[in-house]
Design a protein that fits this description.
Layout (H helix, E strand, L loop, with lengths): L1 H18 L1 H22 L7 H29 L5 H28 L5 H20 L3 H4 L2 H36 L5 H22 L15 H8 L3 H19 L1 H52 L3 H28 L8 H9 L2 H4 L3 E7 L8 H22 L3 E9 L2 E8 L12 H12 L3 E6 L5 E8 L4
Parallel strand pairs: 1-2
Antiparallel strand pairs: 2-3, 3-5, 4-5
Helix pairs in contact: 2-3, 2-10, 3-4, 4-5, 4-7, 5-7, 7-8, 8-10, 11-12, 11-15, 15-16
Amino acid sequence: MLYARMSSIMTFIREFVELNTQLFIFTYGLVFFILGLSIALQSRHSSNLALARSLSWLAAFGITHGLHDWGDLFIPIQATYLASATITALYILQILLLVASYACLLTFGLSLSNVSARAKLRIPIIIVGLWFILVILLPASIRDDPLNYRNAVDALARYFIGFPGGLAAAFGLRQYALRKIAPLNVPHIVRMLRLAGLAMIFFAFLCGLIPRAETFFPSNLLNAQSFKAFVGVPPSMFRSFVGLIIAISITRAMEIFDLETHRLVEAMEQERMLTNERLRIARKLHDGTIQQVYSAGLLVETSRKLLDDESIAERLDRAASVLNDVIHDLRKNLDELRSVPSEAPFPTTLELLANDSRYASLVDVSLDVDLPEDILLSPVESEHVLAIIHEALANVIKHARARSVGISASLEQNMLKVLITDDGEGFGDQINEGFGLQNMRDRARLLSGQLDIISAENEGTRVNLQIPLRMP
């Protein structure tokens, strides 16, 4: 009874697969095409993580592999309408897409490993070159039969490029998860990358070792036809399932970029708070403590001049000396609290700021500088101007949801003009004058300058700073 039921179930599955073969082919191609497209749309090229740059190769693999598999569905349909030469060209293109997809997968795996940059480029080229040589050296008995020749070329691509490419991707994902992601204390991301690596191992075997049937070993024994006869379903069903696991796990693992952005913004906020606190303490020391100690010193010196007793005068001299030492130490601490201004020309300082990874990894920062190369701002001017720009960029990242920021600087009639614009949401007429904006205005006033903030809803924000410069 149980055997009969199992036999009827297997018969139903075989009939269902036979009737829906084209649907499975389309689904298989769709899974990998969506994998590549989703990675391409969510990639973060500006991220500091090597995974962001490596994912471009995985996206290319998914798209090209999906297009190759769709060829098995659409090329036979076109064969009834197009010339044989055109169909042959389409089959050649399909093979090239397969080779390109596996080469991209191999490069993806190598890019996450510890091999040298030169090896990452040379190894795929060498392997593809070896495949090409083997294709040329195939015997005439295979080359004379177009279908047989196409299957042989396909099988060699799977053996020599697809199989090592899948294993390299699996190894690279596992090693990168353990070396780079695990120290960030994000176990769910590590699990997703390791799951993707495990799925890549199955992909390597299913796609790299199970080609169409051929006359040479091992494809004459292990092939798509023998696999289907043994299991009851074609390998494309398992490949689709594995591709789905890869797509889901990689998409979930890409949450690491959002986490990176969150931590970067948090670090910037902490740095800004520390800077403001240092400035607050520095002002308090300068305006309060140092002045009080200095006044105490003057009182001691005045009292010293009014006394004739040498023993008391000597003690007052010592007190005055101690107070002078205290003032010296306070001024030294005050200098350490203040940020050290750059001695580089102001255009160079602006270029360094625009290329700062803290901002470049979150928004596209463009710089337009029309200033003399040798222009130098005083330490006070440089400190305040750069602090205003930093505050403006921090506000863009935290509130504007902008994709790009432009910074321009020019000199007109001894007036330094700095303009920061973004394409974010803006805030209309309701400007919340918090500590950050108030601090920007205070700095502009300290430079005898003017700061204008113009914002329209859904039209971004313009921060316009103008300060007079003392020209030589």
